[in-house]
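REVIEWER CHECKLIST
Item 1: Sequence provided? yes
Item 2: Single chain? yes
Item 3: Sequence as submitted:
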Amino acid sequence: METKLYTRKRVGSGPGRQEIEQTVMKQVEAVAKECAQGLTLDSNIVELSLDSLERMDVIGRIGEIYSLQVPESVLPEIETCREISEAVLERLQFTSPEDDIPLKSFQFEEMPEYRQLKTQIVAAAAEGEANPFFAVHDGGQ
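Item 4: Structure as written out by the authors:
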């Protein structure tokens, strides 16, 4: 299986296999709760009754912990905790500068769309206008 996770460049040594496996198991348990009883590295996370949003939550949590950006297309390829761990470990070992992802693609605050939204909100406020994108509704009263 060839799973691609995208990340920022790593410098120095990172976590080992055992630490990554423990972290993956912990995150699956946090999301699956009581469904995770008897969880092993080879447990199929789909068979734990995790829906696609819960599986994305697991992948997202692991991405945050290890500063990885995980594309949604990876989700169908990963079925076990071991596969998640192996993919993370493989990605953390990669250090080629050609594969760096710019912050604007990696951190929400740096995404061009978010920065443009913030600029437009500030410009509207400078003109004395209310936020043109979001409004508080009184619930129809």
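Item 5: Key structural point noted by reviewer: The beta strands are 6-7, 68-69.
Item 6: Recommendation: ____
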